[in-house]
Amino acid sequence: MYFGFDVGGTKIEFGAFDEQLERKASVRIPTPKDDYDQLVNDIASLVEKYDEQFDTQGHVGIGFPGTESSIDGTVLTVNIPCANGKKLGADLSQRLRREVKLENDANCFALSEAWDDELKNYDSVLGLILGTGFGGGLIYSGKVFSGLNGVAGEVGHMRLPIDAWFHLGDSAPLYDCGCGKKGCLDNYLSGRGFEYLYNSKYGIKKSAKDIISDYYNGKQTEKEFVDFYLEFLAICFANILTALDPHSVVLGGGLSNFDLIYSELPKRIPKYLLSVATCPVIRKAKHGDSGGVRGAAFLNIK
What we know:
The chain has two domains: 2-109 and 290-298, Nucleotidyltransferase, domain 5 (2-Layer Sandwich), CATH 3.30.420; 122-285, Nucleotidyltransferase, domain 5. It contains ten helices and twelve strands. Helix 1 crosses helix 2 (88-96), helix 4 packs antiparallel against helix 8 (220-244) and helix 8 packs across helix 9 (260-268). The chain is an alpha/beta fold. It has helices at 36-54, 88-96, 105-114, 162-168, 186-189, 191-202, 208-216, 220-244, 260-268, 291-298, and strands at residues 2-7, 11-17, 23-30, 59-64, 66-68, 75-77, 100-104, 124-130, 134-140, 143-144, 248-252, 281-284.
């Protein structure tokens, strides 16, 4: 059995998958984000419970919003304060007496989608999340590519391309990022970035949901803004695609449900690519909120 955990700032989701990758158990519990010992115990207790239920020693994979250091195994995470700087993988491995694999949650999302029947024959899949934040994961030949420092795919902390900066106009906003830098894509391409740019352009605070609803209702301001934003998104995506050149792209997160993206980006991106390049297939994620736990479980499949 393959056990996957999606550990977020507010909840931990657990899933158990059989050899056919069918989900056989599912549990959600609150994240004890201020008590590290409780966090380790909660995860380990679920593993032990389902070990007994399925009469097995499950393979354990964990997705979380952060990075595990390749140097000393400590975790860098903002959303789970008690785990920051701790050796979560090593501590769980010691408690459970087996290997426990940790991976960034965006990589787990990308892995889940890459293993779907529609994408598993692609040599490379780039998963991009347009949610509360903007991030990504790289899958090559069905495996997560984490890079030297475990930060491969952290496209949310790439800076704005110069042509995207020009597109924002003379009063382009320069946002601070939680990583300590300025101008990171996370604050422009995420759902909140969508709202930030609307507010910057029109001086009105409005939710992404309401902006998109008014777009579909034919409001002129929203039609103008969506056209502006899609061009901005195409510029930023084209820079990422030029660097990574994936065979397929899959989008997740709340903003990925804006279906206009899938008809417009393939038309807008090519003019920003190299002349020899074509735009890869861009698809909407199929597994939604369950993608993280699926991908975490699949980390142990050889």
